[in-house]
Amino acid sequence: MRYRLYPTTSQTELLTRHCADARYLWNLALEQWNWWQPGRRPAPGYLEQARQLTELRAAQVWVAEGSQMVQQQALRDFDQAKRNFFGGTHHLPTWRIKGKDEGFRIVSLKPEHVRRLNRHWGQVFIPKAGWVRFRWSRPVKGAKSYRVTLKAGQWHIAFAVKPTPIRGPGDGSIMGIDRGVVVPIACSDGTTYAVPGLGSGEARNLKRLQRKLARQKKGSGRRGQTKAHIASLRATEARRRRDAIEKATTHLARRCDFFRI
After folding, report:
1. Distance CA 249, CA 251 (A)
2. Rounded to 5 degrees, what are φ and ψ at 158?
3. What pTM was estimated for this model as a whole?
């Protein structure tokens, strides 16, 4: 369950600090893991790294100023990434890069940490940052943790919620689904679903920005601003497509019991 987050200027600085702490601890754990070679002692696991984190917080003031939960969860995420790699379900953990991998995770979320303000707005409590507003598009029920991410200059919060099973008609019906270019989703019964993208005005603006980017000097500040505007439009397009596909999938799940793609 993903929502748009709207932090204030001071809260943005704290969230950026959380992202930096999580990225630093992840890369530090990865460096320890990469140091291992045959004949050396095994790389430290999560429990040993958590103990080392306690010592690091006592020795370095700038580390102690950060959120301990954010830092611990970065180590736990790395430990889970290692398990996924050895389990054969994911790729090898890689370095996290500033400006690309911006995010952190918070666990032990309590019901009183999320509250609704009005019809369109809600608040979530984030350590060190306090109550941060987010766009209330649907209820938040049963969340135990959440992840905050920054992409294309926009903050988002994703609550980890176990989805409610969608019941089909129960008659064993089967529907074939074909995904194409002109018609994004076409069903065997003749039903089609459109996946929206950018509007005509947004598409023209995107082309204008791309032509502007080609003329600008590499490494300049204005070129960076243009790239950020393009990334924002691309992110908007991706969100619209993702939401449309999710709605179409939910609708189809209620119409039949099995899919054939």
Report:
1. 5
2. -120, 115
3. 0.78
